[in-house]
Design a protein that fits this description.
By secondary structure, this protein is α+β, with helices and mostly antiparallel strands. It has three domains: 4-70 and 247-331 and 443-500, FAD/NAD(P)-binding domain, CATH 3.50.50.60; 135-238; 335-433, Polyamine Oxidase, Chain A, domain 2. It contains 17 helices and 24 strands. Helix 2 runs parallel beside helix 11, helix 2 (43-54) runs parallel beside helix 16 (472-490) and helix 8 packs across helix 10 (221-233). The protein starts with a helix and ends with a helix.
Length: 519
Amino acid sequence: MNDPRRAARRGRDRKAEIVMPAPGLKRFPAADTPGVAVIGGGIAGLAAATLLAERGARVTLYEQAESLGGRLAGWSTRLADGGEATMSRGFHAFFRQYYNLRGLLRRTDPALDRLRQVPDYPLRHSGGLTDSFARVPRTPPLSALGFVALSPTFGWRDLAAMDARAALPLLDVRVPEVYERFDSVSATQFLESVRFPEAAHHLAFEVFSRSFFADPRELSAAELLLMFHIYFLGSSEGLLFDVPTAPFPQALWDPLGAYLQRLGAHIRTGTPVRAVHPGDGGGGGVEVRTDTAVDRHDAAVLALDASALRGLVAASPALGTSAWRDDIDGLRTAPPFLVSRLWLDRPVRADRAAFLGTSGYDGLDNVSVLDRYEDEAARWASRSGGSVVELHAYAVPEDARREAVQSRLVDRLHEVYPETRGARIVDARHEWRSDCPLFPVGSYTRRPTVTTAHPQIVLAGDAIRCDLPVALMERAATTGFLAANALLAGWGVRGQVLWTVPRAGRSPVLRALGTVGSR
């Protein structure tokens, strides 16, 4: 009844795989508790800090921003009508396959009541066709067959026209072998070799590559195949997802921050770390330098985005080998992306989806209607009679005029949802960012891993190499737990039980066919 392996999963997929930590004590003895610096308060840092604090370590969490959450942080803004709203960097989907992220959130929300299911995830092409996942079966291979049977953009004739041999590797994605086979190929090259029909190419696959904020011509095909495995043919959790019922701080990070403080962790927001220096001989602890102090810890977790990690390593000359430092310096970030949030004076049509993926709309990648699922936006919509709409544009060209892109997204919204043409924009916020990791062709072997040359210093984040089938937010959470596990194992303390979707194709028959495709 108390089997931790059973409790950790909390999903429906019976073939989800377990990753057990090294054996050890349940927690540190009270008289022997190490101090650990966790640098970065995003998902990866929060996962590492949570596990270390639960095991009894003395955790200090450094975050340069004024609030927790990293790229999912939120902040208060005053609207033109005098109301207060919580702004963020945009919509995120919490898929059922995100076992480890959801396990982190269960620390303060055991039943995940602060997440709400989105009933469908339609994908619409400018040509007028729309795909839906609401009625697609969850369990492979019925999921793929059901998608073909129900899709107006991908029919049986299209399936017959594909290069079956080129497509076979989709049936047996293995990690890390998929990188050995396909990291040297771009996502676009792979799709062209398979001969996917154009509409299905955009709707079923470019959407995945856009999840990395990347142009598919630059993205490693291995990452695309991994995404297909995680969400489609490798997992029976399906392609539907949950979203927070409140803005990110209120639903997720404020409760988790309070939980950490109850465990004794010291949270230092608004505190950028300028440099990190390992102790002499690799066993003398870690020195953390901020603007106001030099702090000593026994170990450190560097849970930063690619750009911040590059900067910290460059300012910390004693860290790592020269080859490792070169690899860190080689980490790339994806092109800029835009999140435009509009407060409109009238509602969008009642049958509009909470989230709509789009393709072929001149840079508009998706539209979400926040008042369909977020309580704060719903209250504003009810009070004003309007609606709160969010528009995303990914992989925007570096030389694009930002004002023109913002205006173009609004024009495309009017095309997608014509009822918004007559709406007055009560207020708007346009958030431009360029800090998501890019996984270009041929980059896998150079990505840094969780462990480093210093046993007391580990890395975490969605830019960090992880030889498990995880991506995006789940990669951040998983590497955070793996980083904490690595430190705990060195101290003889048991870490976190982790779960992933299967690390290979689900069916022996499909795996055999996939092997044929590799010959």
